[in-house]
Backbone:
């Protein structure tokens, strides 16, 4: 557990952030579909993170998100994943500049 997915509780112990389920409705009148899950400290953070991730995924269909415990990676896969994460971080930083 990192400091980004934990919140201090009484007595100084860290508690994991709750898991939020993300649903997307493609158009008015259509049903919501499950788009994934994410951890966030509160509802406002969960909505902001979900919108950011969804927008990134729409911009580039190569971007996908999955639970880290669902897949087995070879060393080459991990290197590619690391490079893709670096690219995403640069894109988010660039997009958030005024």
Residues:
């Amino acid at each position: 557990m990192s400091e980004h997915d934990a919140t201090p509780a009484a007595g100084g112990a860290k508690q994991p952030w709750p898991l939020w389920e993300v649903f997307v409705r493609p158009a008015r009148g259509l049903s919501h579909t499950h788009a994934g899950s994410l951890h966030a400290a509160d509802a406002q953070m969960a909505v902001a993170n979900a919108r950011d991730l969804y927008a990134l995924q729409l911009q580039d269909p190569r971007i996908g998100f999955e639970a880290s415990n669902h897949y087995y990676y070879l060393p080459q896969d991990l290197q590619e994943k690391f490079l893709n994460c670096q690219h995403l971080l640069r894109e988010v930083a660039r997009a958030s500049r005024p």
Remarks:
- The mean pLDDT is 77.
